[in-house]
ABC-2 type transport system ATP-binding protein (Amphiplicatus metriothermophilus), 328 residues
Amino acid sequence: MPSDTLVQEPAARPPDAAAPPPGIISVQGLSKTYAGGFQALKNVDLEIRRGEIFALLGPNGAGKTTLISAICGLINPTTGRILADGHDVVRDFRAARKKIGLVPQEISIDMFETVWATVSFSRGVFGKPPDPAHIEKVLKDLSLWDKKDAKLLALSGGMKRRVMIAKALSHEPQILFLDEPTAGVDVELRRGMWDMVRGLRASGVTIILTTHYIEEAEEMADRVGVIDKGQIILVEEKTALMKKLGKKQLSLELVEPLARLPEALAGYDLGLENDGRRLVYAFDTQGERTGVTRLLRDLDALGLRFTDMDTKQSSLEEIFVSLVRKTP
């Protein structure tokens, strides 16, 4: 072969061709501005991993519902691109939407229909053929089987919310959005729904959860994303987030109560509780030194004795509040 023969390079990918997404959901440069000028989302980038439970947290008006609506194709973004299992939610809406089940905040169902008819009809809306065995399994998994012939009007609020979840699962989606799924649900039923969600994740369904109940995210999520003022301000593994941003508290039950903190302890982040009988020390777990050993030595030097000692990690709620307060 002549030395000057050119080797043809592989054809470049067309600029509008979709690169394989790293996750089951890929959000790139997403913004949404409404007609009145309000910008609900600002250049959001987000990757949701296949098979995870992802908790999206944020205060009221932060943009959670707008983000979910855009991913589900219910509103068109002003700018940006969204892929659901490789399908563009704008250009290939039907294929993308078939991959997604959505449980919205508001209960919107025909109250005069039966549970069975409501869930079966929802499956047909997505072009799926009838499958009574699948509908039966969904209703049994959600403890709705004994209510299959009941009209929705006769169900409790918690049962109606379960019907909403059954509707979302009727077409066998790979992605499930739960927008405040346990709002108004009693604690016992809420824990039952947590078990159901874990079971769905075990079957391969990716769960995206928004919630006002921080303990829900703390209990269930693999990763946590925080949105505020239309921007994603943090995405982190839940355990890593709590380790990185959480503080620990050391509580000491004193033998004799203190009226005030001694001046010799002014250099510590200390507080008095329980009418001066409990001394509370907050320290950073990521610091080079926690200061606990030095504090105990100084307490001994002052003659302050204690009967019990306990440590507590910051909760996800405390971390969330501190993050949102820092947002400009």
User: Anything to note?
Assistant: The chain has a mean pLDDT of 83. The chain has two domains: 25-242, 247-326. The first helix runs from residue 64 to 71. The radius of gyration is 26 Å.
